[in-house]
Each structure stands twice: as structure tokens, then as C-alpha cells.
């Protein structure tokens, strides 16, 4: 269907005004009406709202059903904050002239002010039905869909607006915002940059570009743009804080501190304070961070950003109750890696609710979910039923480990929420069940691997003989920003892999075979690997493989959470973890884990000599009869086992890094 041709605007204002006056108005009064509305409109555009209001009301005394007068007065009182009267006036304008698209668009704006998204959407759609060639109507529809979290619909609407007016900076800005809400920061950055190109002399487009680059952890690139911004705005507090934040993400804490010190004390707002305390936390100065943060929180306890960071500081210091009491404030803070699922259900308060159907949704990463499996058992006797909505890759592990709960992919939750009475975010379980140190006195082995797959892996790993079997993982999938500060290259692990009497297997879930082959070619050292096991997507398989290890040495990744949840000896290295260590040297969540903190000038490579020494001692005291592989085979009666359906084990004689031999 060809698009409707937009009607040409009528240029004769007087004729339009007079035409709406009606036959009951005399010709003389019509002339005075035109003059009154013309003056009122001039005052309105000039910001003289009181004078304009008097003029519109005077006009309506002459012609009470004059559509434009009602509409313009409605817009004016909305600008003054009287949304109730604005809604009444614009509705009367629509009743007087039911086929005028801008009236519906304006009333939709009022409904948007009242956060009645359904009625706002209906009015914007009506405006579009009357005139589908007006880019502003599509833009307003896009914005209301974005506010209602209908992001696909919002994107479709803003694209139609841009089809009609491609260089509309406001529409491009809205599109960037929609991509930001979608967490698609790469596409958002493209749009923010397009806005900046259209408005090169304005501060906000430049600020949005920088903020998006920071979200993308493009810290080096962002620093270049920030320095250009500071050349134009040398005392800009937000740009200085962006610069300090980039230095923090790069692990350049001294440089970050120097930027903070440029900012006068009286001008340091909450955002600057958070950056400052992040430096303290990264350098193991949690007491300093607490002293800075607590007064700000007491002065303004409603600041969620401050409360959330104070929660982390308290947890890092071991102040469990104070930390957990503020922990749920994370659900109100944007862009901290927490996925909030908004359901029209009340939140569970941790008290017994017999018969209630509770759904607990995972708001963070795979590792956090695995750690919370230990707490799920404690929920079961308190409610009627428990459903865990989590990463689809974890549903099997959750069901095996806690048979009394149901597990579903989190993406299904939006279509099934009506099946439940109560909701909770998964991380919030800690606020109920880990408030005191003694709450951590539980069985360290709470994960249940797939027994058949573990046996198949053990039968393959038996080819390594009675050696100590060590699983290694040296980096996370996410190596952006500060996180990369805490990881190793595989070649830096060579002294560990070379330890005599030790067989090393690959537990790195994003390792490519060429990386292992290059390592072998450079060092002659073998890291045994199963090429058919995708340890990123097949977490069940990864858990089963890790359970064949006698020891796991890992960066601060999911592998450490798996090893800890299996109750295996685990040596884990990384940055100081506020809600992980909880003021201890080693994580109370996993009592079989030893933690090697990286902070200050210390780097992961600096702990290699200590790990080698410990590994030699571990090997010397190791009893081959307790080897995990031997134990698994012995418990299974050394029974042969066919691989699980669709699973094969390939031994490549020509590629030592892929072989168990």
C-alpha cells in the first residue's frame, strides 16, 4: 500500500481560527478572536505564559469549543505542570475536532507524563493513523515503547521516524538510547557519534559518546576523546571522572588518583566519590573507602549508587549484616552488570510462606548462579514450590544438585510469570541465609555432575596414569578493562605445567586449539584437552571434566566456582572480591579454595613461583590411590561406558596438545 500523502499545511492562520469559531460567533467577534489568538500564540512562543494563558482563556469565552484554543491552552498548562487540566483541555479539543493528528499526539504526551503507557501508545497510534508521514509522531511512539520496555517496537518506530527525516538528531539520540537499553553498546555508540557529528559544538553529544565508550571498556580510545573534551571544558567534573574511571579500568590506580586530586574537595560528587573508593578497594584499603562513603550515605541514604557501593565495602570488611542489608540496592543501579527482571509479583521477604509458588531469577553471571546453588536447598522448606530461572546452560546442573526445585531458562520467565505468587533475585538469597559467619558451615560439595559423562571422561583421563591431575584456567571470557589486569597468558603458566609428576588438563572454556598448539611448539609442554568438548556452551560437560581433577588452578572465573562447588582443592587468583572473600583470606563460600589476591603492584605472574612451590609440595604428599579419576572408576566398578549421545572423544596422535596420551 502506498503511504498516504501528508496534507499540506494551511498558511492562512486567520482563516483557520475563524473557521473553527462556528456560526454562532458574529463576524466582528471572529475578527477579535483571530487577533486574540495571534497575540496569545506570540506570547506563548516567547515564553510569556501568563499572558498567553489569559489570551487563550479570553478566546475560549468567545468560542468555548475552539479546537486550537483548547489544544494550545492544554499545552501551556502542561508546561506549567498542571497535567490534569491539560488532559481535560486537549480531550475537549479532540472532541471538537476528532481528526486532527497533533491533538492526539499532544494528549499522548500528557498520558506519558502520567506514566499511562497504554493510553499514550493508543493516542500516538491514532495520530499516525491520521497522518503516518509525520516523523514526530513515530518518534513519540518510539519513546513511549522504550519507556514501556518494548524495545523491539521502539526500534521499529524510531526507524520509521528516521525514514521520514534521516538527519533528525533527536530521533538518532532516541535510537542510541534504545540500543543502550538493549545493552547493545556497539550500535548505541554509532548513533551517539552520529548525533555528535550533527551537533559538534554541544557538550551533551560529546558526553554521550564518552559514556558509551566507557561502557564498552574502550578505555584507551575513550581517554583520547576525553582529553579532547577537557581541552574544551577543562574543569568539567564529569569528564574528569570519566578519565579517572578509565585509568581505574586499566589498572593505572596512581594515574586515577592524580586525576581525582585535581577536583576540589567541595566539588566531588557521588560519582567521583565512587571512583575514588574503587581505587581504595582495588588497593586493599577498604577502611579508607568506608570512611569516605559512610558520611555521604548518612547524609543522603536514598542514593542507590552510594548504598550499593557501601554494601560492597561492608561485605569486603566482613560486616555481613550491614553489607547484606544494603545489597538489594544493586537492583536499582544502572550499568553494573545486574540484569533486573521486572515482574508484577511481590518480592519474597525470606519468611515462611507455605503453599506459595516462588520464582527466583538469576540477575548476574554463571559463576554467581553456581555459587547460589548451595543456598537453594534452604528455600525449599519455607515455601510451597521453588523455580529457578537461570542461564539455560545451567538448568541440568541445578536440577541434579537440588532435585526439589524446578529449573527453567530465564528467557521463558516473561511468558510464565503468572504461574507464580512471589519472586526474588537469586543473589538476594545471601541476604537471608548468609548473615553470620556460622551460616557458611555447610558441606563444601554441593554440585552434582552428570555421573555418566564424568565416568566417560574419567575412563579417557585414566590414560594419563597415576599422576596428579591438575586443571588449569588462566583467563576469563571477558578480558575487558580492569579484569584483564588479573589474568595470565598461557605461556606464563609454563613453569607449573612443566612440574614433574603432574598431568595438566585444559579447563579454559574459551581456549582455541591453535593456542594450545602454539604453546606446545614454543615450550614442548602438553596441555591435555578434549577437542569435542565446548566448555563454554556445555557447562554440564565442563563440570564433569573438572570433577576428574585432583587440583584446579584458575583465574577468578566460573571454573573456580565449579571447582569450589565440587569441594575440590582449588587455587584461585584475582582481584580482591568484596562479596566473595567477605573479609577473609579465603572465600567462605568454598572452604576448599585458597585465594591468591592480586592488588597494588602485584601481578598474576608474580605468584607463579609460589604456586610452583606449593604444587611440588602437593604432589609430594599426594596419594595416587586417592586420585579423582581412580576413585570415580573404582566407585563405578571400572565399568566401561559408551559416550553420551552426540559426544565423542578424539585422540589426535599428530597433535600432542589434543591428546590424553
Automatic annotation (TrEMBL):
The keyword Lipid metabolism does not apply. It comes from the Bacteria. InterPro entries: TPR-like_helical_dom_sf, TPR_rpt, Ycf3. TPR repeats lie at residues 101-134, 135-168, 169-202. Residues 638-661 are annotated as: Disordered. Keywords: Lipoprotein, Repeat, TPR repeat. This is Lipoprotein NlpI. It comes from Hartmannibacter diazotrophicus. The lineage of its organism: Bacteria, Pseudomonadati, Pseudomonadota, Alphaproteobacteria, Hyphomicrobiales.
Amino acid at each position: 500500500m502506498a503511504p498516504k500523502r501528508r496534507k499540506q499545511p494551511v498558511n492562512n492562520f486567520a482563516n483557520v481560527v475563524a473557521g473553527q469559531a462556528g456560526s454562532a460567533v458574529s463576524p466582528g467577534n471572529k475578527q477579535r478572536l483571530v487577533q486574540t489568538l495571534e497575540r496569545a500564540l506570540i506570547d506563548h512562543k516567547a515564553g510569556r505564559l501568563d499572558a498567553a494563558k489569559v489570551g487563550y482563556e479570553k478566546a475560549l469565552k468567545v468560542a468555548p469549543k475552539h479546537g486550537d484554543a483548547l489544544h494550545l491552552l492544554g499545552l501551556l498548562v502542561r508546561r506549567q505542570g498542571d497535567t490534569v487540566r491539560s488532559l481535560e483541555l486537549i480531550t475537549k479539543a479532540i472532541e471538537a475536532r476528532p481528526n486532527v493528528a497533533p491533538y492526539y499526539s499532544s494528549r499522548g504526551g500528557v498520558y506519558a507524563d502520567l506514566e499511562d503507557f497504554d493510553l499514550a501508545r493508543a493516542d500516538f497510534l491514532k495520530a499516525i493513523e491520521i497522518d503516518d508521514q509525520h516523523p514526530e509522531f513515530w518518534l513519540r511512539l518510539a519513546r513511549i515503547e522504550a519507556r514501556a520496555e518494548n524495545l523491539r517496537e521502539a526500534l521499529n518506530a524510531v526507524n520509521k521516524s528516521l525514514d521520514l527525516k534521516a538527519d533528525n538528531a533527536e530521533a538518532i539520540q532516541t535510537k542510541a538510547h534504545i540500543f543502550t537499553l538493549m545493552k547493545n553498546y556497539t550500535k548505541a555508540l554509532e548513533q551517539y557519534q552520529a548525533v555528535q557529528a550533527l551537533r559538534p559544538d554541544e557538550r551533551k553529544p560529546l558526553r554521550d559518546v564518552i559514556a558509551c565508550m566507557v561502557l564498552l571498556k574502550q578505555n584507551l580510545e575513550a581517554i583520547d576523546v576525553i582529553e579532547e573534551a577537557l581541552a574544551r571544558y577543562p574543569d568539567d567534573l564529569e569528564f574528569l571522572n570519566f578519565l579517572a574511571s578509565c585509568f581505574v579500568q586499566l589498572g593505572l590506580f596512581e594515574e586515577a588518583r592524580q586525576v581525582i586530586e585535581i577536583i576540589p574537595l567541595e566539588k566531588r560528587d557521588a560519582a567521583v566519590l565512587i571512583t575514588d573508593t574503587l581505587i581504595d578497594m582495588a588497593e586493599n584499603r577498604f577502611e579508607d573507602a568506608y570512611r569516605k562513603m559512610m558520611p555521604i550515605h548518612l547524609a543522603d541514604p536514598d542514593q542507590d549508587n552510594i548504598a550499593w557501593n557501601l554494601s560492597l565495602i561492608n561485605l569486603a570488611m566482613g560486616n555481613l549484616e550491614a553489607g547484606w542489608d544494603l545489597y538489594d540496592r544493586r537492583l536499582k543501579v544502572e550499568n553494573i552488570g545486574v540484569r533486573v527482571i521486572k515482574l508484577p509479583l511481590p518480592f519474597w521477604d525470606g519468611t515462611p510462606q507455605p503453599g506459595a509458588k516462588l520464582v527466583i531469577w538469576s540477575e548476574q553471571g554463571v559463576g554467581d548462579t553456581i555459587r547460589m546453588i548451595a543456598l537453594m536447598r534452604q528455600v525449599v522448606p519455607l515455601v510451597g514450590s521453588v523455580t529457578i530461572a537461570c542461564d539455560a546452560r545451567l538448568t541440568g546442573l541445578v536440577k541434579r544438585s537440588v532435585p526439589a526445585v524446578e529449573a527453567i531458562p530465564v528467557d521463558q520467565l516473561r511468558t510464565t510469570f503468572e504461574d507464580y505468587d512471589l519472586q526474588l533475585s537469586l543473589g538476594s538469597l545471601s541476604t537471608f541465609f548468609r548473615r553470620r559467619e556460622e551460616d557458611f558451615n555447610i558441606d563444601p560439595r554441593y554440585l552434582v555432575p552428570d555421573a555418566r559423562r564424568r565416568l566417560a571422561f574419567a575412563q579417557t583421563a585414566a590414560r594419563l596414569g597415576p599422576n596428579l591431575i591438575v586443571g588449569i584456567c588462566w583467563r576469563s571470557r571477558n578480558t575487558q578493562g580492569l579484569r584483564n589486569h588479573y589474568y595470565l597468558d598461557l605461556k606464563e603458566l609454563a613453569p607449573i605445567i612443566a612440574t614433574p609428576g603432574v598431568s595438566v588438563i585444559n579447563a579454559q572454556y574459551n581456549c582455541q586449539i591453535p593456542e594450545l598448539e602454539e604453546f606446545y611448539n614454543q615450550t614442548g609442554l602438553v596441555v591435555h584437552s578434549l577437542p569435542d568438548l565446548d566448555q563454554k556452551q556445555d557447562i554440564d560437560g565442563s563440570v564433569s571434566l573438572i570433577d576428574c581433577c585432583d587440583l584446579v588452578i584458575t583465574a577468578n572465573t566460573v571454573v573456580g566456582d565449579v571447582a569450589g562447588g565440587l569441594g575440590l582443592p582449588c587455587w584461585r587468583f584475582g582481584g580482591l572480591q568484596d562479596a566473595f572473600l567477605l573479609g577473609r583470606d579465603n572465600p567462605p563460600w568454598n572452604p576448599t579454595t585458597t585465594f591468591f589476591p592480586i592488588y597494588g603492584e602485584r601481578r598474576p605472574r608474580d605468584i607463579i613461583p609460589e604456586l610452583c612451590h606449593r604444587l611440588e609440595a602437593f604432589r609430594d604428599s599426594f596419594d595416587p590411590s586417592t586420585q579423582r579419576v581412580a576413585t570415580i572408576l573404582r566407585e563405578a566398578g571400572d565399568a566401561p561406558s559408551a559416550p553420551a549421545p552426540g559426544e565423542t572423544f578424539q585422540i589426535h596422535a599428530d597433535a600432542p596438545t589434543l591428546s590424553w596420551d
